[in-house]
Design brief:
Elements lengths: L3 E6 L4 E6 L10 H15 L6 E6 L4 E3 L35 E5 L2 E3 L2 H5 L4 E5 L3 E3 L11 H7 L4 H10 L3 E4 H6 L5 E3 L4 H13 L3 H33 L3 H9 L7 E2 L1
Parallel strand pairs: 2-3, 3-5, 4-6, 5-7, 6-8, 7-10, 9-11
Antiparallel strand pairs: 1-2, 8-9
InterPro entries: ClpP/crotonase-like_dom_sf, Enoyl-CoA_hydra/iso
Family: Belongs to the enoyl-CoA hydratase/isomerase family.
Protein name: Enoyl-CoA hydratase/carnithine racemase
């Protein structure tokens, strides 16, 4: 089974990209990372697709970040750290067509690589946003940088520092601007497709130029912050064995929703 589903409506010009590992809460493994990069690259050359919707399969999660069973060997030097999630987003693959994210259920950790490279987010009332890095002795670096460009500083700082103890509800995410539209359960995908269809109906050159301009407004700050991320991660992360112990000892249901 493919880790990512892809379908395009040639009449509307809208493609829907679906993270397709619902049994793993759409966590990203090597196959998913490669398939996403391949799809974004393919879309660069498909002029019939003028807008994209990104969503997750199943009812429980949009994406829960990197799969803990997906081992990524790392060199000892902090100057050569490898992060497979840096290649999963549309902007990382030089795709400047608008991407609308449709979120149902959990979106946490590495999901922010994808949300951070989407133009805006539509979510239903089951959505919940959090970042568990600090809980498990890990630095939230790339995730924090991306979300700091989408949310007020105090809100993103609280989300990152509170770890798995607290989740931002869909209603709160909408109030602070992370989510642009809130729908009833199960309706986020349809709402996102409707937005994408409107955008796809406009001249592509103007739309894509606007996407590029919007990204340029924050690109320099993001690049400078990303340059520091590998060193911060290498310095601040607990050893992998200790992270695994903390992760194995987690208790479900011990969190607060706000």
């Amino acid at each position: 089974m493919s880790a990512v589903r892809f379908c395009a409506d040639k009449d509307t010009g809208v493609a829907v990209v679906t993270l397709n590992r619902p049994e793993r809460l759409n966590a990203v493994d090597g196959d998913m990372a490669r398939e996403l990069a391949g799809i974004w690259g393919e879309l660069r050359f498909d002029d019939s697709v003028r807008a994209v919707v990104l969503t997750g399969a199943g009812e429980r999660a949009f994406c829960t970040g990197i799969d803990r069973d997906f081992a990524v060997p790392q060199p000892s030097s902090p100057y050569m750290q490898d992060d497979p999630l840096l290649t999963v987003g549309p902007k990382a693959n030089d795709l400047w067509k608008p991407v609308v994210a449709a979120v149902r259920g959990m979106a946490c950790g590495g999901a922010f690589y994808l949300l951070g490279e989407s133009e805006f987010v539509v979510a239903d009332t089951t959505a919940a946003f959090f970042d568990p890095h600090t809980t498990y002795g890990m630095v939230s670096a790339y995730e924090s940088v991306l979300m700091a460009q989408r949310m007020p500083y105090g809100e993103v700082a609280r989300m990152m520092l509170m770890g798995s103890a607290e989740r931002i509800s869909a209603e709160r995410a909408h109030a602070i601007g992370l989510v642009s539209e809130l729908t009833e359960p199960g309706e986020a995908l349809d709402a996102a497709v409707r937005c994408a269809a409107v955008i796809a109906g406009y001249p592509a050159e103007g739309v894509q130029g606007t996407v590029r301009a919007l990204w340029a407004a924050k690109e320099a700050a993001r690049a400078q912050a990303f340059a520091q991320a590998p060193h911060l991660i290498a310095l601040g992360n607990l050893p992998a064995e200790r992270q695994a112990e903390l992760f194995a000892g987690r208790r479900s249901g011990q969190f607060r929703v706000r």
